[in-house]
Write a structure and sequence with these properties.
The protein is α/β, with parallel strands linked by helices. It contains eleven helices and eleven strands. The strands form three sheets. Strands 3, 4, 5, 6, 9, 10 and 11 form a seven-stranded mixed beta sheet that branches. Strands 1-2 form a two-stranded antiparallel ribbon. The chain is elongated.
Length: about 300
Amino acid sequence: MDMKQLSTFQTASETLNFTKSAKILNYAQSSVTSQIKSLEDELGVNLFERLGNKLVLTPFGVKFKVYTDSIISQYHSVLDEINCDKNMTATVIVGATESQCAYKLPTVLTEFKTLFPKVQVIVKPIHNLEQIQADLQNGELDFAFLFREKFEKANGLKISKLAKENLVLVASPLNDANNLKKPSLIDLQNETILLTEKGCSYRNLLESMIADSNMSFTSTFEITNIETLKNCVKSNLGIALLPYGVVKDEVNNKKLKIIDWEPTSNTEIFHFVSWHKDKKFTPLLETFVSVSENIF
């Protein structure tokens, strides 16, 4: 049973004439007859009967017409709403960390654009938690994506946890650290450590572990661009702690290798999306959150 068959039945039930119905629908009469026969076979009842030269609805046909009219009406309502959504114009301002901008948001935005092709999205890189909260509070951001160990509920904000990800310590396949058996941070202190920018959640986690181990690395580089940092690791400049999703392709292609080390704390980290609690959640914004939850 499909909308084509239902539409054919609806027309035939109103004209009570298969020839007229075929002309209205621009079908061959045999097509109308075939579709009605297919419906009757699926339902297991006769929808029409002939009384002399007249075609009339059976009691089953009368009942089925009520449901058919309702289904077709709802179908057209859905089409109207979807077409309205497709023509909707608005601007959504989103903040996200660099790694989320590079590796997660493109898929979210592509799906969102399919649903709302005329909506404009502005993506801003974000780093500092206090600034993120301030931007959400004052309406400069509609949504903020965060990547943290945890995110306590802040006053005036709503939060949705999207997904968990693991942080991994990576090195070039040529790096001697790969030959160490379950090294600790102290065992790796002669390596050059490549850090993301200050305020980055996984840099904060690594620096906390370094402090807990009461040690320091001999050499440290701060590289604020993720792709540049990965290229430096691949060229064997040093090692880095990064989300697995950021280095997955390089690990699979054997351009980077995960060091099997012993961290001093949990290396799980989570993706969150947050928005102002008083934000008016239109279907557009609800869809943005829903798409994000599905893709992350």
